[in-house]
Design brief:
By secondary structure, the chain is α/β, with parallel strands linked by helices. It is about 30% helix and about 20% strand. It is built from 8 helices and 12 strands. It has helices spanning about 1-25, 75-80, 100, 120-125, 220-230, 245-270, 275-280, 295-310, and strands spanning about 35-40, 45-50, 55-60, 65, 90-95, 115, 155, 160-165, 170-175, 185-190, 195, 235-240. The strands form 2 sheets. The protein has a 7-stranded mixed sheet. It has a 5-stranded mixed sheet with strand order 8-9-10-11-12, with no helix packed on it. Helix 5 runs antiparallel to helix 6. The two termini are about 15 Å apart.
């Protein structure tokens, strides 16, 4: 029973992640690729549109980019950077494996150093094939296979990696499973800003991608480790929303803990996962949170049930 529940969660969550990625990325490729620039500091910008929020950090010797958006958005990112600085892009960090954060990689120069958490490298190598393949009689290739491996990571880290020194320092952290099993946090210590990406995509019910190691049970602890470790941070760049604060992160930890506790209690009371998903509401005290998407909520509850040891799903 437990195995069948887990497999069901993996299949449904995988499908959900593709749908949500498309929704977050703005849908079809025919629309104009407009990249909006938000200046956070003289040398740090957030580029919005086309997928996950992209950070651009201008150092003394070059440009560090965090996340490369949906297919076809790599060049618009590079074009926008040219309007900010004449320095070359030297480094690209992907926060996790999803297509709305990594697909633009293939349009970056081959000289760019691409860095990810080690689990993300594995996930990127097995990404679901590109659905835009026109000849469906031929096995579709991933966007990286279609580009002869271009855009795949060149370096990885496990728990922490430090790039550069002084005011240019960039620290990469992995605090544990949540959105996926490779969620990287990118800290710019001299600016007191961190890019948390989709483990904190905004004030919402999180997307938990079980196909890529996401966890309903672990996410609050992973967020807590980030909160406890990142002491000198004023601003958090989220995956798909506006900037947040450490106080917002603390609240988001409590939100995820409360959700898990509610699900655990319902399971012990003998309720099915689907019964919980149909009745659970975001507590009123969490003001400003986006209404819970029914499918995402159902998948998160089912995943929590599977991780907690099974139980009825209907």
């Amino acid at each position: 029973m437990k195995r069948s529940i887990v497999l069901g969660v993996l299949i449904v969550v995988g499908a959900l992640s593709l749908v949500v990625t498309a929704q977050q990325g703005g849908g079809g490729q025919q629309a104009p690729k407009v990249v909006e620039v938000e200046k956070l500091k003289d040398n740090l910008f957030v580029l919005k549109g086309g997928g996950g929020n992209t950070a651009v950090f201008i150092t003394a010797t070059g440009v560090v980019v965090v996340d490369a958006k949906n297919p076809g958005w790599g060049q618009p990112i590079l074009d926008k950077i040219k309007g900010l600085t004449n320095k070359p892009v030297t480094t690209l960090i992907n926060t996790h494996t999803h297509g709305d954060h990594v697909s633009g990689n293939v349009e970056f120069p081959a000289t760019v150093d691409i860095i990810v958490q080690e689990n993300t490298k594995t996930n990127m190598e097995k990404m679901i094939p590109n659905s835009t393949a026109q000849d469906q009689t031929v096995p579709a290739k991933t966007i990286f296979q279609a580009n002869n491996g271009r855009g795949l990571p060149k370096r990885t880290f496990k728990d922490k990696m430090t790039l550069f020194k002084g005011a240019d320092e960039v620290d990469l952290y992995y605090f544990g499973r949540g959105h996926t099993n490779g969620d990287a946090w990118v800290l710019f210590p001299s600016l007191r800003i961190v890019h948390a990406a989709d483990i904190f995509s905004g004030k919402n019910v999180p997307l938990l991608d079980a196909n890529n190691g996401g966890s309903a049970v672990a996410i609050a602890d992973s967020l807590q480790k980030g909160y406890d470790t990142l002491k000198n941070v004023d601003t958090i760049i989220t995956g798909h929303s506006t900037q947040m604060t450490m106080a917002d992160l603390k609240e988001y930890i409590a939100f995820n803990r409360e959700f898990l506790n509610d699900v655990r209690a319902a399971k012990k009371a003998g309720k099915s996962a689907d019964e919980v998903a149909a009745t659970w509401k975001i507590p009123a005290k969490y003001t400003g949170y986006a209404p819970a998407d029914a499918n995402r909520l159902k998948n998160n509850v089912r995943l929590a049930y599977a991780e907690l040891g099974g139980g009825k799903t209907n």
